[in-house]
Amino acid sequence: MLIFLLALLGIVLLVSFRQGDFLFYKPTPPEKGASSHHKGDKTVLFGKRKKYYALLLFPKNKGEHKGTVLHFHGNSLCAERHIGYVRWLTRHGYTVAMLEYPGYGAAPGRPSRESLHKAGGAFLEWAVQSATPPFFIIGQSLGGVVALDALGDVDIPEVCAIVVEGAFANYRGVGAAHVEKTFGRFFSKVLAWWLLSNKHNAGPAAQKLKNDVAFLSFHARGDPIVPWEEGVKLFLSVKNPEKIMVPLAGDRHLGCMSTVENRHLILALLEEAARDRGF
């Protein structure tokens, strides 16, 4: 009976992880009356076989353009409810394009590692064809993984800088950290190895980044969602010798861009990276 129950538990966990609704994907629709849209914001559709969409936030001062920030949000809520994280960039001359994942917000489809990978690739291809360089990428939590993974397949020479917050190198590491709370350290590693595939991790893609792409990582030492150690693994995967990792105090998972100090650091990085690349 015990063996049967353990086998049944394993099947349930396997289905949950493979479908992505157990840990990595928590989409919610936009809340009525809670929209952060401004009058000038737009929605763009793109993609060949499947249609994806992104939100466009334009610079506050018309005619000013310092570049296009491609934003990949985290695993919960939807793009519209993450606008508050990046709206401030429009006051400094940046256009912000926010990808919406399949199954999130009003986007059709179902979230999975494969569907997000395809959406990320289509988003980067849209940027090459329709957006104005230089390009900068901001990926928060899962979004950092999706962005880096997509960059591994879509080459964009005009990408000058990447900023990640609370991101991680591989899914198994984060999965093991959460399973460990219930099953202990040994079984957590075994279950994570068995249940989670090794596809579309950020680590291998980060290793391929060129040295002229600036890289900035924010991570809280007490992050309860993505352990600090997993963020360090991703940071060490990047070969650029001038990469920067900012350890944050406390136990918040996201929110680094709410402080003036961190905003100044991000702006300085974007401007210097663009200047170094001749933009």
Observed structural traits:
279 residues; alpha/beta; Rossmann fold; 8-stranded mixed beta sheet; two-stranded parallel sheet; 10 strands; 38% helix; globular
Characterize the structure shown.
The chain is α/β, with parallel strands linked by helices and 279 residues long. It has one domain (2-28, 36-276): Alpha/Beta hydrolase fold, catalytic domain (Rossmann fold, 3-Layer(aba) Sandwich), CATH 3.40.50.1820. The protein contains nine helices and ten strands. The strands form two sheets. It has an eight-stranded mixed sheet, sandwiched between helices. A two-stranded parallel sheet has the order 1-5. It starts with a helix and ends with a helix. The relative contact order is 0.12. Mean pLDDT is 85; it is low at 4-9 and 15-21.
What kind of sheet is the major sheet?
Answer: 8 strands, mixed
- The N- to C-terminal Cα distance equals 67 Å
Query: What's the number of domains?
Result: 1
CATH class descriptor? Alpha Beta
SSE arrangement:
Layout: H1 2-19, E1 26-27, E2 42-46, E3 52-57, E4 67-72, E5 76-77, H2 83-86, E6 94-100, H3 113-130, E7 135-140, H4 142-151, E8 159-165, H5 171-183, H6 185-195, H7 202-207, E9 214-220, H8 228-237, E10 244-248, H9 260-276
Parallel strand pairs: 1-5, 4-6, 4-7, 7-8, 8-9, 9-10
Antiparallel strand pairs: 2-3, 3-6
Helix pairs in contact: 3-4, 5-6
